TrEMBL record, chain A:
GO cellular component, one term: organelle envelope
Species the sequence originates in: Brevundimonas basaltis
Record-given protein name: NADH-quinone oxidoreductase subunit E
Annotated region (Disordered), positions in chain: 173-220
Organism domain of life: Bacteria
Gene3D superfamilies assigned to the protein according to its UniProt record, in alphabetical order: Glutaredoxin, NADH-quinone oxidoreductase subunit E
Family: Belongs to the complex I 24 kDa subunit family.
SUPFAM superfamilies: Thioredoxin-like (SSF52833)
PROSITE patterns: COMPLEX1_24K
Catalytic activity: a quinone + NADH + 5 H(+)(in) = a quinol + NAD(+) + 4 H(+)(out)
InterPro entries: NuoE-like, NuoE_dom, NuoE_N, Thioredoxin-like_sf
One family name in Pfam for this protein: 2Fe-2S_thioredx
Gene Ontology MF annotations: 2 iron, 2 sulfur cluster binding; active transmembrane transporter activity; inorganic cation transmembrane transporter activity; metal ion binding; monoatomic cation transmembrane transporter activity; NADH dehydrogenase activity
TrEMBL record, chain B:
PANTHER family tied to this protein: NADH-UBIQUINONE OXIDOREDUCTASE 75 KDA SUBUNIT, MITOCHONDRIAL, RESPIRATORY NITRATE REDUCTASE
Protein name per UniProt: NADH-quinone oxidoreductase
Co-factor binding details: Binds 1 [2Fe-2S] cluster per subunit.
Coiled-coil features, chain-numbered ranges: none
Family: Belongs to the complex I 75 kDa subunit family.
GO BP term (any one): ATP synthesis coupled electron transport
Gene3D superfamilies listed in its UniProt record: 3.10.20.740, 3.30.70.20, 3.40.50.740, Dimethylsulfoxide Reductase, domain 2
Any Pfam family the entry gives: Fer4_Nqo3
SUPFAM superfamilies: 2Fe-2S ferredoxin-like, 4Fe-4S ferredoxins, Formate dehydrogenase/DMSO reductase, domains 1-3
Keywords: 2Fe-2S, 4Fe-4S, Iron, Iron-sulfur, Metal-binding, NAD, Quinone, Translocase
Catalyzed chemical reaction(s): a quinone + NADH + 5 H(+)(in) = a quinol + NAD(+) + 4 H(+)(out)
Lineage of the species this protein comes from: Bacteria, Pseudomonadati, Pseudomonadota, Alphaproteobacteria, Caulobacterales
SMART domains: NADH-G_4Fe-4S_3
Source organism: Brevundimonas basaltis
């Protein structure tokens, strides 16, 4: 992980949109008034949803909203790598997992595709529509190699379909997230081999629970 | 009390102590970087690892581990030794080997502890990380590659100074200490982070590359930049004062020091008066001591006693004031005053002009009314104490005066005397409800024509709400001049029929006006023959007809009485500049020339006389206990008028001749009046 800095070019101002402000207020209401600084992470996230990234004026706006010193907001924003401190591609932000399982299954090839199609990592592409970066484990190791694009996981990728996905985003389409080999979540390829009994799913196997293990007996 | 075993020896400790404190109590030093007695516990440097039983079989961070009954603590086992070596090795992975060019070299915790607890060699061949330098303002020089992320600076600025400007951004190996977008630290206590930094990451910018610590001669002294009398150590090399550092005094400054007390010392090298001057045809020319003193003596003896007078300045030691007072009384003059600001204080019982609760005692107050003072500029360390007490949640603060940011929440009750004449109901309530209410009145509220009336009104209020009671005296005067209480204690006020300082400075009031280091009073209207005795070519010297070069506070032994009435003794760190002499000696020489030889030839004899005449000077570092007095008798009943109270200190960085001569203070003052716009704005 490299040193995280605020972007050199910053917008002149930031304003919460109506929807963001409403959600922010919902988060703030969860905490006691004097501890509203606790809402800083969700609100940073909301701001990132609104703008695509966290700008310096936004950090000050959050500081004022939560009555926090600006440096405290900056500390949080620079600590968590999920907060983007530079503008990101308008079409797609591609986060390729590079941790061991994905790396063994071909993450480096995916990154080579990204590099040739978009440009150097953590850099906005020339047309301003794409950014890609390498991230640490995203927790989908069974479906390696994978990448998170915007808010969705794209799994079991190959260099070919990675290129296809980038092309689709470039053409303004929204590619379907999930596995590229057609499996459901992390089931084996070709369908599930266990827990296949339909009775498990129609409710007929359900029994009332009289007593939870290691708990007081249920009285009611 | 519970008992724990430290290295096999049973040690009693108070409940709530940490393992580190218990080990220290038993006499075993625990190395540490992030832990500091007066800051919150961070536990992130891991240098204080010890072995503790019962517990997991691994070293434990003793600073954050509560001690328990029957615990066995080991500080010298092989496990502890290995743990310390390991931590030290990790800390040194990225620490540059630049001790020879580092200002901290020689007084560096990392250097010392690497010697004492580290390995003797390095196993690393990799490149070290480099971190960009950061701007933190004119007082703090950063060298962030040296930082070990102990976060002491972050905690000090946030907790003690109450100005959360410093933070640690990013994470892991790229973590960095910085201010928000490298803005300046907006605190008058910022210099303390340089003291706290255990390595050379934050060092004193004004003294950068000026000295090596082992070259310095260290002298214990008393600070005169505010009226708190902070205990300091003056470090000098040859004839030059290189730096001033705080000494620990729990009753006054704990172990902090304000920026002005610390960084104004470069002013001791500039604008100095190093030889006597006599004005001839409107121009000052250098003269010999004999000539200058002769001129002064001739003028003093020629003038009528009621046409001569002396005003004492804000930085004067008690000895020189005593000598001046004795001399002018011997000459038959009643025109003596140490209150350049025209304050109404100085009459009635001594308690009437003291900070009676004590600086430490103010922490026990549960309601504090601040009148006409801005403690943040007048006495930053008092402000830090008020903040400390406020943080416990047991102190409420109300302010009558200017609306300022005191670094803690307070209710602003009103601007001036009108509010005092008729206190809002809520304000009365918070004072009457309190068990130990206190009033802090700044010297700014007691000046001018309404001064006595304001003092009287405050006294009446104090009596009404029980500020002075059995075992509690919360009537506190916050002076802004280091010499003031000493002057008032010895009666350096106008005698029978004498003129006050303000009257003396008026046109035609006097024939000879003697300014004893008095720079804060504008005497330009006075057509009197003016004699200035002082250390700096400042306001007082500009209009003087004769200049007698005196000694600055670091250049003379002296007694100072702080705002709580504590007499403290300062030692001489260096000799006066050039032909300058100690102030009392000049007055003694002058007294012989006017035929009123003062009865003391040494400073010891002078002190004996002072203590005999005024017994309060007889006990060094003694603060009188809370005494009850008739607080309502203070001042004079009168019309309060409608004046807005102003703090006595307009610009804390330019408050005295030494500070006005200091480059660092000029820089701080410029930033204070016109903050630099942030890059993003």
């Amino acid at each position: 992980m490299s040193v995280r800095r605020l972007a050199k070019e910053q917008p002149a101002s930031f304003a919460f949109s109506k929807a963001t402000k409403a959600k922010a207020d919902w988060w703030i209401a969860k905490y006691p008034a004097e501890r509203k600084a606790s809402a800083v992470i969700p609100i940073l996230w909301l701001v990132q949803k609104q703008e695509g990234w966290v700008s310096e004026p936004a950090i000050r706006a959050i500081g004022e909203l939560l009555a926090m010193p600006y440096i405290r907001v900056l500390e949080v924003a620079t600590f968590y790598t999920m907060f983007m401190l530079e503008p990101v591609g308008s079409a797609a932000l591609i986060q390729v997992c590079g941790t061991t399982p994905c790396m063994l299954r071909g993450a480096n090839e995916l990154m080579a595709v990204c590099k040739s199609r978009i440009g150097p990592k953590q850099t906005l592409s020339a047309d301003g529509r794409f950014t890609w970066e390498e991230v640490e484990c995203l927790g989908a190791c069974a479906n390696a190699p994978m990448a998170m694009i915007n808010d969705y996981y794209f799994e079991d990728l190959t260099p070919e379909n990675m290129a296809q996905i980038i092309d689709d985003f470039a053409a303004g389409k929204t590619p379907k997230p999930g596995s590229r080999v057609g499996r459901t979540s992390s089931e084996p390829e070709g369908g599930a081999l266990t827990l296949t009994d339909p009775k498990l799913y129609d409710g007929s196997a359900a029994k009332p629970i009289r007593k939870l293990p290691n708990s007081e007996p249920v009285t009611a | 009390m519970p008992v724990a075993k430290v290295n096999g020896v049973e040690t009693e400790f108070e409940p709530g102590m940490t393992v580190l404190q218990v080990a220290e109590k038993a006499g075993h030093e625990i190395p540490r970087f992030c832990y500091h007695e007066r800051l919150s516990i961070a536990g992130n440097c891991r240098m204080c690892l010890v072995e503790v039983k019962p517990g997991p079989p691994k070293p434990q961070a003793s600073c954050a581990l509560p001690a328990a009954e029957g615990q066995e603590i080991f500080t010298d086992t092989p496990m502890v030794k290995k743990a310390r070596e390991g931590v030290m090795e990790f800390l040194l992975i990225n620490h540059p080997l630049d001790c020879p060019i580092c200002d901290q070299g020689g007084e560096c915790d990392l250097q010392d502890q690497a010697m004492a607890y580290g390995r003797d060699g390095s196993r690393y061949a990799e490149n070290k990380r480099a971190v960009e330098e950061k701007n933190m303002g004119p007082t703090v020089k950063t060298f962030m590659t040296r930082c070990i992320q102990c976060t002491r600076c972050v905690r000090f600025i946030t907790e003690v100074a109450g100005v959360p400007d410093i933070g640690m951004i990013s994470r892991g190996e790229s973590a960095e200490i910085t201010t928000y977008l490298e803005k300046n630290i907006d605190s008058e206590l910022s210099g303390n982070v340089n003291d706290l930094c255990p390595v050379g990451a934050l060092t004193h910018r004004p003294w950068q590359y000026h000295y090596r610590p082992w070259e310095l001669r260290k002298t214990e002294s008393i600070d005169v930049m505010d009226a708190l009398g902070s205990n300091v150590r003056v470090d000098a090399r040859g004839a030059e004062v290189m730096r001033v550092l705080p000494r620990v005094h729990e009753g006054i400054n704990e172990e902090w020091l304000s920026d002005i007390s610390r960084y104004a010392v470069d002013g001791l090298q500039r604008q100095r008066l190093d030889r006597p001057y006599v004005r001839e045809n409107g121009k000052l020319r250098a003269a010999s001591w004999e000539e200058a003193l002769g001129v002064v003596a001739a003028k003093l003896t020629a003038a009528k006693p009621e046409k001569i007078g002396v005003i004492a300045g804000d930085l004067q030691d008690a000895e020189s004031m005593k000598a001046a007072l004795d001399l002018f009384r011997a000459l038959g003059s009643a025109n003596t005053d140490c209150r350049q600001d025209g304050s109404a204080l100085g009459h009635g019982p001594r308690e009437g002009w003291l900070f009676n609760s004590g600086l430490q005692g103010i922490e026990n107050a549960d309601a504090v009314l601040i009148v006409g003072a801005n403690p943040r500029t007048e006495a930053p360390l008092l402000n830090a104490r008020l903040r400390k007490a406020w943080l416990t949640g047991e102190m409420e603060v109300g302010v009558i005066g200017e609306q300022v940011n005191l670094t803690f929440t307070h209710s602003w009750l009103g601007a001036g005397s009108k509010t005092l004449a008729k206190l809002p109901k809520a304000a009365m309530e918070f004072l009457t409800k309190a068990e130990r209410p206190a009033i802090i009145v700044g010297s700014g509220a007691l000046t001018g024509e309404t001064g006595p009336a304001v003092l009287n009104a405050l006294g009446a209020l104090a009596k009404k709400v029980g500020v002075v009671a059995d075992g509690w005296n919360g009537f506190n005067v916050l002076h802004s001049a280091a010499s003031r209480v000493g002057g008032l204690d010895m009666g350096f006020v106008p005698g029978e029929g004498g003129l006050s300082a303000v009257e003396m400075a008026k046109k035609g009031a006097l024939d000879v006006l003697f300014l004893l280091g008095a720079d804060e009073i504008d005497a330009s209207a006075s057509k009197a023959f003016k004699v200035y005795l002082g250390s700096h070519g400042d306001r007082g010297a500009h209009g003087a007809d004769v200049i007698l070069p005196g000694a600055a506070y670091t250049e003379k032994p002296g007694l100072y009485v702080n705002t709580e009435g504590r007499v403290q003794m300062a030692e001489r760190a260096v000799f006066p500049k050039g032909q300058a002499k100690e102030d009392w000696a000049i007055l003694r020489a002058l007294s012989a020339l006017v035929g009123q030889t003062l009865p003391y030839d040494t400073i010891d004899a002078l002190r004996s006389k002072l203590m005999a005449d005024h017994p309060t000077f007889g006990r060094i570092d003694y603060r009188p206990p809370a005494a009850s007095f008739d607080v309502a008798s203070l001042g004079k009943k009168g019309d309060l008028g409608d004046t807005a109270f102003q703090s006595a200190v307009r610009d804390p960085y330019l408050n005295n001749p030494i500070a006005r001569a200091s480059v660092t203070m000029a820089e701080l003052s410029a930033l204070r009046t016109a903050p630099v716009a942030m890059a993003a704005e």
